[in-house]
Amino acid sequence: MAEPSTAPNSIDLPGLSWLDTLLAGLQRNARTVLVAGVAFQLAVLVVMIAKPARTLLSGQTILLRVVPANPRDMFRVEYVVLGYEFSTLPADVIPGITNNDEESRAVYVSLEPEEDGRHWRASNYSLERPPGVVFIEGRTTRWRRLEFGIESFFVQAGEGRKYEEAVRDQKLSAEIALDENGQAVLKRLVIE
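Request: output the structure for the sequence above.
Response:
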C-alpha cells in the first residue's frame, strides 16, 4: 500500500528545492508580483508610444509624393501600401551596398524642397548622418530597397479605392512628421 503524500500540492524532485522556495515566495507575495507585472507591461507600452508621439508633436511636418508600390495588390484589408521615389536606391549611389546584402544598414536620405515649395524630394544618399540638412533615416532591405516605417496607412473601410486612384493619377501625398534624428511618423494621406 502506498504512503499518502504529506504535501498534496508539491512535487518532491531532488535538487530542485530552490524551485519550491521560489514558488512559495511567489504565493506569499502574489499581489505584489501581480502589481509589478502590470506596472512593467504599462511601462513597456508607454515607452513604445512615447517616441512616435514626441515626433508627431515636435517634428517638422513635410509632404512626400507617393508612388505605386505594388500595382497588382495595392490594398490589403483596408490599408494602403505606400512607396516613395527614394525607396529604391539608385545603382551604385552608395559604394558597398549590393542587391544581395543580408545585413540591414541605416541609410540617410537628404531631402530638399521641390519647386512647388510644399513637397520634398531626395537630394543625396549617405551611410553617415548629414549635418545641417533635413533628412530621413531608412533601413536597407534586399534588392536595394529602403524602408522608413511609413510604408503603410490604415484607412476606413470602403475608402481604399479613392486612394488607389489618387496614386495612379499621381495625386497622393503623405504628410509626415520628421524629427531631428531623421525618424518619420506618418500623420495622414493628402489627395490633391
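Confidence is low (pLDDT under 50) at residues 71-75.
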